[in-house]
Write a structure and sequence with these properties.
Helix content: under 10%
CATH topology: Porin
Strand content: 35-45%
Oligomer: single chain
Radius of gyration: 22 Å
Largest sheet: 18 strands, mixed
Number of strands: 22
Shape: globular
């Protein structure tokens, strides 16, 4: 992946040439102005206990791993009832495919990088209910992405041609607090299918699932924690790679999908915003947009999507003072399903070991309106990135990384200042 849009550096001599040999210009004139990315109107409905919210805003459910639009704002509306014990919400939006209907300047440089948006005919519906009991929460949710985009306007990673599809997600989020112990859980499963237009291909059924759990214990200034994430993925065989298949032939999509691999044009409408994740591996910092993390075996070829992963983690928070705190996290990263590459023109399975990462952060409240934070992450490549490969264009499900039997560590450091009004 390469930087684009607001990832572009402010000062560039002439033009910046990125890894795919495209060129990016520096900001100028109105492009230097800020952009309004969220705005909405919220009103009560008559004398009934319902409220109406409409405008440009994200939809978030649970911890953000399984459902919602996270960092992608879309035009839509919500009807909700908020209570002390029971809250309910219905949400609708039509995916903003181009992710460009904002108030403010536009930076149109994607076309030079081969990024082209096409029309879509998708609609998104979601419903969630929240039960509160003290500090404990239970939240079941369901989402439906109904897509009637024609085959010629899709970027379809499956061979089955389709123009009618339903991608559903049924999930459950849970938070339990017992004195100093906090436990969190989020599980979800995809359902629905994409109907094939050809008798030569099966309908593609969505069968992906995800599991996330976390626990922490408050010992005063010191709070240790552990996390675990598991997400399903599609399996690729050596026979598929030897046959030079460039799309999946299966009648099942087993990768957990926020948006559908049968229409990846919807990426810019469904970019999840889950809880803390490895900064370098996912490119999940403030200063970089999505899509700049580390490539790995993934159906959707999107480093921000939690597809085909097993991720245990240990860490802690430490509070030096009421204003100054720090955190440290260690992550172990595995692929759920092995990738397949080629060496000396023969397909071979690749290691599941993706590597490890250590992240640190420091946060200081200058006053109640200004916070300054320092984030850093260091990624140690695993055996997967050190496999010898000669498929320089990459194989199905497995993007080319380097292939010479070596891999360098990667690190990222960010300094952020937040103003709160």
């Amino acid at each position: 992946m390469v930087p684009f849009d607001y990832d572009v550096p402010l000062f560039i001599h002439n033009k910046l040439i990125v890894s795919d040999l495209s060129r990016i210009k520096a900001y100028r004139n109105e492009e230097l102005l800020p952009q309004a990315e969220e705005f909405w109107l919220e009103l009560p409905i008559m004398n009934i206990p319902l409220r109406f919210k409409a405008g440009l805003f994200p939809y978030e459910v649970g911890k953000g791993f399984a459902q919602g639009t996270g960092t992608c704002e879309n035009y839509g509306f919500s009807l909700y009832q908020a209570g002390e014990i029971l809250s309910r919400r219905f949400h609708y939006f039509r995916p903003d495919l181009t992710y460009k209907t904002r108030l403010g300047p536009k930076i149109s440089q994607e076309k030079e990088q081969g990024i082209e948006y096409k029309a879509n005919a998708a609609n998104y519906f979601a419903f969630d209910t929240t039960f509160l009991s003290g500090c404990n929460k239970i939240q079941p949710f369901i989402g439906l992405l109904l897509d009637r985009t024609s085959e010629g306007k899709r970027t379809n990673l499956f061979a089955a041609p389709t123009h009618k599809e339903m991608l559903g997600t049924l999930g459950f989020d849970y938070d339990l607090n017992i004195k100093n112990l906090s436990i969190g859980l989020e599980v979800a499963r995809n359902f629905g299918k994409a109907e094939s237009e050809s008798e030569d291909f099966k309908d593609v059924e969505h069968k992906g699932y995800i599991f996330y759990s976390a626990a922490s214990y408050n010992l005063g200034r010191f709070s240790p924690r552990c996390r675990f994430l598991f997400s399903s993925g599609n399996k690729v065989t050596t026979e598929m790679v030897d046959n030079r298949d460039d799309r999946f032939l299966s009648g099942a999509n087993k990768a957990f999908s926020i948006y559908s691999p049968l229409n990846t044009n919807l990426l810019d409408s469904h970019c999840p915003s889950p809880g803390p994740l490895p900064i370098v591996f996912f490119g999940w910092g403030y200063g970089l947009n999505y899509g700049v993390g580390v490539n790995r075996p993934s159906t959707l070829a999107d480093v921000a999507v939690l597809d085909n992963l097993v991720m245990p983690s240990l860490g802690f928070d430490y509070k030096f003072t009421d204003k100054f705190s720090a955190s440290l996290d260690w992550w172990y990263l595995l692929a759920n399903e092995k990738g397949v590459g080629k060496f000396e023109e023969v397909a071979k399975e690749l290691s599941r070991n993706l590597g490890q990462e250590i992240d640190v952060s420091f946060s200081y409240d200058i006053n109640k309106h200004i916070n300054i934070s320092l984030y850093g992450g260091y990624f140690f490549p695993g055996k997967y990135f050190k496999e010898k490969r000669d498929d320089t264009e990459g194989s199905l499900f497995t993007p080319f990384v380097r292939g010479d039997g070596s891999a360098d560590p990667a690190y990222q450091i960010e300094l952020a200042v937040e103003f709160i009004f």
